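Question (not urgent): is this output format expected?
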Amino acid sequence: MRPSIRLCALLFAAIAPVVSAQTITVSFPASRSLSPLDGRVLFLLSNDPSAEPRMQIDDTGGTQMVFGVTVDGLKPGQTVAIGNSAAGYPVRSLQNVPAGDYTVQAVLNIYETFHRGDGKTVKLAPDRGEGQHWNLAPGNLYSTPRKMHIGPGAPPIDLTLDQVIGPIAPQPDTKYVRHVRIQSALLTKFWGRPMYLSAIVLLPEGFDEHPNAHYPEMVFEGHYPDDVPDFRTTPPDPDLKPDYSDRFHLAGYNRIQQQEAYEEYKKWISPGFPRVLVIQIQHANPFYDDSYAVNSANVGPYGDAIETELMPAVEKQFRGIGQGWARFLYGGSTGGWESLAVQMFYPDRYNGAFVACPDPVDFHAYMTTDLYKDPNMFYIQGAVKQIEQPAMRDYLGHTLISVRDNVAYEAALGDHGRSGEQFDIWQAVFGPLGDDGYPQPIFDKETGVIDHKTAAYWHDHYDLNAILQRDWDTLGPKLQGKLHLYVGSDDTYFLNDAVYLMEDFLKTTGTPGHGVPYEGEVKYGPRAEHCWNGDPSLPNAYSRLHYNTMYLPQIMDRIAKTAPVGADMSWKY
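Got this back:
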């Protein structure tokens, strides 16, 4: 799950709506493309002059407005109308936008047609090196921001997509940070065109000076990385203007990040520090900024591609030991779920998973909803009234966005599960293929009604707690001592609830009739938000910057206890 907590209030609902008969059209010139284009046209309005509207759309209280329309075969010079039926967020319809002056802008998130190996043809936005962000994706078209009046009697708005987002420069290799990119045969076959996997590798001190050494591997799971952000070889920039972190309520958090990254570098190169490889995987795909590192009907065989194609390439190039006793997993949020899932689905390939604030590991607690029993995602039905359910909360328990609004945000960005956001990727990874070639919806985005037949598929394939319980007799012996779960008791996205359920099961292991004991740990951070990762001595704002070092003592202890006789210890120099 992408963390995004920025407390700022725009009380659109408190402003009386007005009906506007304004004509709003969007087109692109032949100078931008001679061919018709498919994609999602996004019409954006902002009353905040601090940035372009395309940089101000998110799932927080500070979001500006977006209205989306899908286009198929839009020709140069042809206009598409943005009318009252366009999917809107946080205002649902253009007719409810308060009259006033706004900065307006349009973006075309361009789709590519995929003729997949399963025989389905779908149109999706391929990742172009930006990690599935429509407002930053190279090649996407956008209009120059303009100040316009919205309201009755206002002149028509005709926006031309006269700008194109430029390419992203690749990150250079350095002494400690290297990059690997391979074409995946498995993913290429699934998607029907060349598909690639990449990794960013943090090398240990002395890597070049010890050419015969081989190293244990720590796979850092998580969202699309473009660098190793928590590793800095130079002191903090003294001229860096301090910012403020709404999430952590800290002034100068950018300076804190640079200082902590520099401290990690000094620790990394210090005498006696464990010499290991840290591997961050880049597996953005046409649905999201990562694949959840498993095989799935809609996203493809990413689990097998990572394990059988990418990891061997990394191990060969950077002298990884390449044996199960010397591989470990860790990560938070999406990366937490991935760490646990990969450890479970490939139990012999890894020797431990350090799972922080994981996405729902039990769909009885899919955030605030029980997918198997509850009838609706959006609300609890009372005797007379309907009680809206939250999707995010702050550390004091205030609701930051409801599930209904969160889903409307995604619906504005794309239909058929093409928003590139959280609920849509869960639906794509966990769910079956729909008849139209797109993911089968788990619930109706207009009404919130849950499809329990689809939920049953989720249960059997990706409910990690259900799988542990079903398969513990055979899986348990392979996971003993490997599962370490950490979550804040006030997780922003209510992810602690599912961990409670998993812990309930893990506590039963080792008792009569329940197989071997799991011999791991589950810990909670009191009053801690997303994404507490197991360090009780530091606030989350700091501990989240220490992933690459904080689990090393446990990893070294695990290696000492489980490495086979005669194991390669050439990394101990």
